[in-house]
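Extended Data, panel c. Modelled sequence:
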Amino acid sequence: MPEAVPAGTGLVDASLAARDRGLLWHPYAPLDGPAPYAVTGAEGVRLQLESAAGERFEAVDAMSSWWAAIHGYRHPVLDAAVRDQTGKFSHVMFGGLTHEPAVRLAEQLVELAPAPLRHVFLADSGSVSVEVALKLAIQYQAAAGRRGRHRFLALRGGYHGDTFGAMSVCDPVDGMHSAFPSLPAQHFLPKPPAARWSAGQTSGGELRADPAAVAAWTAGLESAVEQHGRELAGIIVEPVLQGAGGMHVYAPECLQALRRTADEHGLLLIFDEIATGFGRTGRFFGSEWAGVVPDVMCVGKALTGGYLTLAAVLCSADAGAVITASASAAGRALLHGPTFMANPLACAVASASLDVLAGAGWQQQVRRIEAGLRESLAPAAGLASVRDVRVLGAVGVVELAGPVDVQAVTRAALEHGVWVRPFRNLVYTMPPYICSGADVAAVGAGITAAVRQVHG
């Protein structure tokens, strides 16, 4: 249980929330929204928090700081990478210059990615990487002599970021489109059919969906591309798992259908692996569930282990060659250039994070989390308020029949030693890979207890 302390004591006093209120905007929250919890420390998989009333909590971070801190906090290897790079130089422009951290990181990414992906653009964030991927596809079509192709096909239930281009390919109904009428108009397919594990399967098994539903969805895909193909530059999807759009797990066969259709119509296939990359779904990249390779792939979030903002766009050698051979001098360059592109600190820690990921045996880590979440979240399926419980890799989801009371569930989970950030009708977890079996059990038990306490 939390411990009440007098205002003005501790590392962060009770006035911090009051100082924050009306000063700082928080994600998707008004200036006068609920008081945030103050972070006073973080180590391993645990956060030290204080409420506006001065209550202290220690909680397992079941969110990995929005899916990024896969190695936890204050990791010695990542800390050292930042310190070492700071001792050399923290930032230089990337226009006309290069440096070892950027080159090494790009080499690692190309080595980890499927063989056709051979070129790397280093971006500031996931949203920016999506913007770059969309621009790349439009430039590709122009270089190929198809200048009328400037729209995209995306999925209902998808989420790709909050900048304008990225928003335009997010779900047009449940996303933020209505607030921004000037967004580019895109085309959308229905949400792909849901997939489930076959009985008794684990991470080495397969995701199964209703074959008739997959066939019907594929027919809709083919019809949409036949109708709109001449104005489409590409197709963008999150492979297998739709993240912030609803934590929807779908049939890998849909990715195979997307690959066939893109090839038939000369479209670039873009996979947004920002949430699914680096092992989160049980495969290193989500695309591996289908054995499909995209033309363009975006990665971010866990790329730096949660230390600094960085993302990357990987492009196939074929697509890169088409752009490079453009008849337009300007079209031969990828027309994007962030000020902090390839920031050396971010590249250095990302490179170290990939080394840690390889050395720690991420497969075993994710399988342990998956097994622990299946067991610890199973009791939630029996609650009256719960519609569904699903687990894929190091992702656990409790879907409610109605909207979640975000503040109440967050508080209830904290009282059980777990930090979560629910949304819509979902209470979910994407814990750090370094979580022990006891940590995972605590996460599942805390989520179940919070849902039971608040929603019954």
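The chain has two domains: 16-71+361-455, 78-359. This feature is highlighted in the accompanying rendering.
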